[in-house]
Amino acid sequence: MSLKTDQTAINVLPAVMRETGISTVVVPFVALMDDLVTRATAMGVDCIRFRSSMNSGREGVPRAARLVFVSADVVSSAQFSGYVDGLLCVGLLQRIFIDECHTAITDFGYRAKLSELIGLHRFGRPMVLLTATLPVVLEDWFRGEMLAKSVIIVRDRTIKLNCRYEVRE
Asked: Transmembrane ranges (predicted)?
């Protein structure tokens, strides 16, 4: 699948396939999460947005949807760890996506929680790190910070079909 393809499809694809278990999608921005949840729901994908309050009794125990969206600010919480540990115990968690993964190294200065994304390795599931804006010069730093030395990086041109530029003199 080319990077020209909508990134939402990359997150959603495993959730619509039979017997692929549960995917967790870590999202660093509220507006992006709102958009992803709306789009996945519109596609008929069984998904939930994980909130810390879900495990504290205010909203009940979160169900095991095929696609679980979670804020990057919540992934290091005891509530989320407990939820994911439960999914692991019953063999449901299959993979973890981190959308806009470059923010783990570019934005942690003002959002310290982003540096804790590295802790997702403890779950022992494949991690799919998605970004369309990580400069090549930052790849080695990114690999080191995310403990991703053996990752495969797929690069392609980013094309927006609905954008046009005109240069006038």
From this structure: none
Cβ atoms of residues 1 and 43 within 8 Å? no
49 pLDDT exceeds 90?
Answer: yes
Please state which CATH number belongs to domain 7-145. 3.40.50.300
pLDDT digits (tens, 9 = 90+) for 90-141: 999 999 998 888 888 888 778 888 888 888 888 999 888 888 888 888 888 8
* DSSP for residue 128: E
Query: Does 48 have pLDDT greater than 50?
Result: yes
- Domain definitions of the chain by residue range: 7-145
Cα separation, 42 vs 36, in Å, equals 10
The distance in angstroms from the start CA to the end CA of the chain is: 38
> Burial letters for 128-156: b for 16+ Cβ neighbours within 10 Å, e otherwise?
bbbbeebeeeeeeebeeebebeeeeeeee
User: Do the bridges between strand 47-50 and strand 127-130 make them parallel or antiparallel, or are there none, so unpaired?
Assistant: unpaired
